[in-house]
Amino acid sequence: MFAVIGNPNAASLTYYGLHSLQHRGQEGAGISVLNANGDINTIKGEGLLTDVVSDPAILGKLSGSYSVGHIRYPSNGAKGYDNVQPLMMKMSDEKFAIAYNGNITNTIALRSELEDQGSVFHASGDAEILVHLMRRKKGAFLDRLKASLLELEGAFNYFILHDSGVYAVRDRKGIRPLCIGKLTDGGYVFASETCALGIVGATYIRDVMPGEIVYVEDGKIMSTFFTDDCLHAICLMEYVYFARPDSDLEERNVHSFRKQSGIELYHESHVDADMVIGVPDSSISAATGYAEAAGLPNEMGLIKNRYVGRTFIKPTQALREQGVRMKLAPIPSVVKGKRLVVIDDSIVRGTTSRRIVQMLRDAGATEIHMRVSSPPIMYPCVYGVDTSHREDLLAHQLDLEEMRRHIKADSLEFLSREGTVKALQRSKSLGPNCGVCMACFTGEYPTDLSAESFKNGKQA
Ligand code: SF4
């Protein structure tokens, strides 16, 4: 998500900010802008941002200084145009454009209660629940917003473009990342990751804190909290896989964490080998750390077709299989006759790992030792990462040796939970109340899941 507050080039800046965040989802993209007449205009559609806005000159038609933008990763809600954000909601007395990242875990109860009271939902995702909750309440905008946020459970970052401005919200555990930047030529931006700041000429100010609502008034950043029951629990998978290596999350650089994970992985499970190769792109940093610690060459044994999306975030298994085949290719002259340590950041379903091992063997590698720079994923994510079915998870179905046989590697080891915590601490000290969510590795979920844990028939 990316938003601009108080800059006349809001639409264009949002386009470039979103472009830096395209790795977070490829199913849809959209930009909404509040113009001087108080109208909200939107461009959105399915596919990549560059498909939706094929000619950035079109953004000149979206005049205004306040904007919110979104690229979609469909962890909840059906595919299709209806769930592409921002969602527009025009009432007789106020207008909203909503962009949202995360997963609300008490959706079913809230939605059925709201529908019983007459609310009509336009999409199947979580995004518009907040507006329906606000419409039930009386009082000033911020009071209605705070009271409504208190009713939500789970992970949610919201951008709300309203007649009164742009509001950025982070859930009480800060599960998804969200930061604030200042534009050199006037105004502020909010962004999912810091990698989106530099491209628009913004400098990092700080992260939005768990439980915080941030907005701008008279050119100043304003802050209020909807709850004091807050504790940092940012998603570990953001560090492991999702975020770009040049992003800092909670002021910890993603590349530094991944490199340190590779170092810890070497100390825990090194093996005799000729070279280290990382699975591009998100495992390159961990491979650098492992190779440095091992004193082995860090080679480019796999090449990535940069015009294919990330396999993990493809919505069906058939698309994921096809995605792996299109995405990665070995370099035979590099790997032929070599004993390889192959570093991957995670194993979810095992699709990619199995295919990679086969490709490298076909290319002439003599030994393939798979090393994974995070612990086994054994539990589903309920906070917006699409690993909702336990039966999809290889580490839930199989033990370590069975997984090794499944992917056909000569050896397989994962970084331990303790090693992961060490990597976090060595890349930046974990302050009090500044932890991470590791629920998909430990089963210990940081929010109350008693009301309703899983949606759409998905059970843990
Ligand atoms: S369960 Fe896993 S993927 Fe989901 S928020 Fe927690 S660490 Fe991230």
Automatic annotation (TrEMBL):
Q: Look up the record and name the cofactor or cofactors this protein needs.
A: Mg(2+); [4Fe-4S] cluster
- Identify the pathway: Purine metabolism; IMP biosynthesis via de novo pathway; N(1)-(5-phospho-D-ribosyl)glycinamide from 5-phospho-alpha-D-ribose 1-diphosphate: step 1/2
Enzyme Commission code:
2.4.2.14
Q: Which Gene3D superfamilies match?
A: 3.40.50.2020, Glutamine Phosphoribosylpyrophosphate, subunit 1, domain 1 (3.60.20.10)
Q: Cofactor note, please?
A: Binds 1 Mg(2+) ion per subunit. Binds 1 [4Fe-4S] cluster per subunit.
> Can the keyword Nucleotide-binding be found in this entry's annotation?
no
Q: Name one GO molecular function term.
A: amidophosphoribosyltransferase activity
The reply to whether Transmembrane helix figures as a keyword in the UniProt entry is no
Write out the residues that bind Mg(2+).
Answer: 282, 344-345
- Please list the residues that bind [4Fe-4S] cluster: 235, 381, 437, 440
Please list the reactions this protein catalyses: 5-phospho-beta-D-ribosylamine + L-glutamate + diphosphate = 5-phospho-alpha-D-ribose 1-diphosphate + L-glutamine + H2O
Keywords of this entry? 4Fe-4S, Glutamine amidotransferase, Glycosyltransferase, Iron, Iron-sulfur, Magnesium, Metal-binding, Purine biosynthesis, Transferase
Q: Name one Pfam family in it.
A: GATase_7
Judged by the first EC level, this protein's enzyme class is transferase
Record-linked InterPro entries: GATase_2_dom, Ntn_hydrolases_N, PRTase-like, PRTase_dom, PurF
Q: Where is the Glutamine amidotransferase type-2 domain?
A: 1-219
Q: Which NCBIfam families match?
A: purF (TIGR01134)
According to its UniProt entry, the function of this protein is described as: Catalyzes the formation of phosphoribosylamine from phosphoribosylpyrophosphate (PRPP) and glutamine.
PANTHER family to which the protein is assigned, alphabetical: AMIDOPHOSPHORIBOSYLTRANSFERASE
Instruction: Name the family the entry cites.
Output: In the C-terminal section; belongs to the purine/pyrimidine phosphoribosyltransferase family.
State what protein this is by name: Amidophosphoribosyltransferase
Look up and give the organism this protein is from.
Ignatzschineria rhizosphaerae
Q: What gene name is listed for this protein?
A: purF
